[in-house]
Amino acid sequence: MPAPKILVFAGSTRTGSYNTKLAALAAKELTLNDVDVTRVSLADYPLPLYDADLDARAGQPANALRLKQMIMAHHGVFIASAEYSASVTPVLKNAIDWVSRVREKGDPTYAAFKNRIFAIGAVTTGPSGGQRSLIALRQILELGCGALVIPEQVSIPNAAQAFDEMDNIIDVGINNFFRAELDRLVEVARLMM
Ligand SMILES: Cc1cc2nc3c(=O)[nH]c(=O)nc-3n(C[C@H](O)[C@H](O)[C@H](O)COP(=O)(O)O)c2cc1C
Fold first, then answer.
1. In the chain, is it the N or the C terminus that has fewer CB atoms within a 10 Å radius of its CB?
2. CB 80, CB 19: distance < 8 Å
3. Using an 8 Å Cβ cutoff, are 181 and 148 in contact?
């Protein structure tokens, strides 16, 4: 059976980002589950702040097109969000806004968000575990972009104590939940093949 293709990235581009750590762990676990995984960083797709006048005047930036095409080359996407001011990070929201505007010939609207499945998770340094960013991200993806997002979502508080020296999740319950979320992502991604 061919492997589903899943894209993984984080909503933070910060050096030492805990969400990048979560994205790396997701990529590792998915690879062990015989998934064809691609992990990218939004830092590889620098984009200007979305501006409709710029969009109309200069067209979509090449990096918006590249990121849209990267998403469309996969059956599933895992996003490790990060929580800023009870919402998603500006870099993640900006990337989604640009990708949502890119239309190639024959594309339906929001093409990058259709015909693939999304899963989300978050890590925060504080006790919230990024749950508010996940509510915001789910709203953006589902209501804003028409994406399907699986109901499972991992939320990891107290980041500095959350990972062991091998960057695995220490809390057994959270780790089991994370694996169950990834299993569901793979199961639904297979349906998208
Ligand atoms: C501007 C800003 C706003 C933040 N707002 C929140 C917040 O609302 N809730 C929260 O739990 N952590 C918040 N944090 C702390 C982040 O959880 C913490 O910086 C975390 O390390 C960011 O994710 P990263 O490690 O992947 O970069 C905020 C951090 C910044 C810089």
1. N
2. yes
3. no
Question: How wide is the angle at C-alpha 114 spanned by C-alphas 153 and 129, nearest 5°?
Answer: 15
Q: What is the pLDDT of residues 181-193, one digit of tens each?
A: 999 999 999 999 9
What is the structure's pLDDT at 158?
Answer: 98
Paired with 156 in beta bridges are 123
Residue nearest to atom 17 of ligand 1 (CA): 124
Q: How many CB atoms lie within 10 A of CB 136?
A: 20
Residues touching ligand 1 (Cβ under 6 Å) are 12, 14, 17-19, 82-86, 124-126, 128, 130, 159
Helix, strand, coil tally for the chain in percent (to 5): 45, 20, 35
Q: What's the gap in Å between 124 CA and the centre of ligand 1?
A: 6
